Amino acid sequence: MKSRFAAIMLLTSLLVVVASFVVSASATITEQVVQDYDPNQNLFFMLPSQDPTDANWYRTWFQDWGWTHTFDPTNKVLISASLEIKAWDVDSDAWLFPENDKIYADVTTYLGKLIGTDEEWSISTFAIPVSLLADGELNVWMDIATAFRWVTLGYSKLTVVWDLEAVICIKPMDTPNDFNRRAGGALPVAIYGTDYFDVNDVDPTSVMLGGIAPLRWSFEDVNLDDKMDLALKFSSPEVAALGAVDSAVVGDYVDLTLTGELMDGTTFQGTDSLLIVM
Which of 97, 113, 123, 204 gives the lowest tally of CB atoms within 10 Å of its CB? Predict the structure, then answer.
């Protein structure tokens, strides 16, 4: 099963952390937390085994509040993200004055509203634009927009799905990466070894450039930096037949993404461009 490396990052202010690591082709890491209650930090998640109607966290329309998720985006290509919020007594289905608890990200991005029913726990999930996560933070704000309605939050969980970032170079050591669609032969592409990316861990049979498998490959120091690289050759006619390449006009730059897996199943990707000259 081909899948991406998924990481679940949660609030930095924690009371209890229980982590489980699942070793599989998906290389999924999950963390489950119970958030802290700390009025000095404007955190009002309910503590475990407490009364959800306690005034410390059972909040109403003039007690809006927010929190921050953090994670490390270094050397990651973000694929997708979601936010899961557990809440109690969300009367969104009430026939009279239904509750409207609006959730925002980074001040202005409206994610949606909490969904639930009277005096029950419910879970609401929101899609997060990955563009909001480039700095490694997600600032969440809850606007309790209905007067004389109350809500308690149990937890908030951010899930980020990402690929390991690979540094690739089409036509290494050549600038620009000009490409003649009428030419035959092979197009060279290199995956560069870095301090965090060991090409010896790559499964070469998994590598694809825009969905095209390589003709052949070898391990060598392509850019002469004393780190091992993976040099691959792809069929130029097959690259020329790719939709984005075939439809480009002369002078266009076309981005091509290379994907693959490490031997442990961790997925990676990298992108470089071609300059169409013919």
Answer: 97
CA–CA distance, 64 with 140 (Å, rounded to integer): 11
Q: How many whole angstroms from its chain centre is CA 251?
A: 32
pTM more than 0.85:
no
Neighbours of 234 (CB within 10 A): 24
Report d(CA 131, CA 114) in Å as an integer: 23
Strand partners, 120: none
Q: How many C-beta atoms surround the C-beta of residue 181 within 10 A? A: 18
213-256: per-residue pLDDT in tens? 999 999 999 999 999 999 999 999 999 999 999 999 999 999 99
Per residue in 195-224, is it b (16+ CB within 10 Å) or e — as a string?
eebebeebebebbebbebebeebeeeebee
d(CA 83, CA 85): 7
Whether 16 and 36 have beta carbons less than 8 Å apart is answered as no
What are the structural domains, with CATH classification, of the chain?
A: 5-163 (2.60.120), 166-276 (2.60.40)
Spatial separation of the C-alpha atoms in residues 186 and 183, rounded to whole Å: 9
Distance in Å from the first CA to the final CA of the chain: 39
> In angstroms, rounded to a whole number, what is the distance separating the alpha carbons of residues 266 and 171?
26
Q: Which DSSP letter does residue 70 get?
A: E
List residues bridging with 90 in a β-sheet.
Answer: none
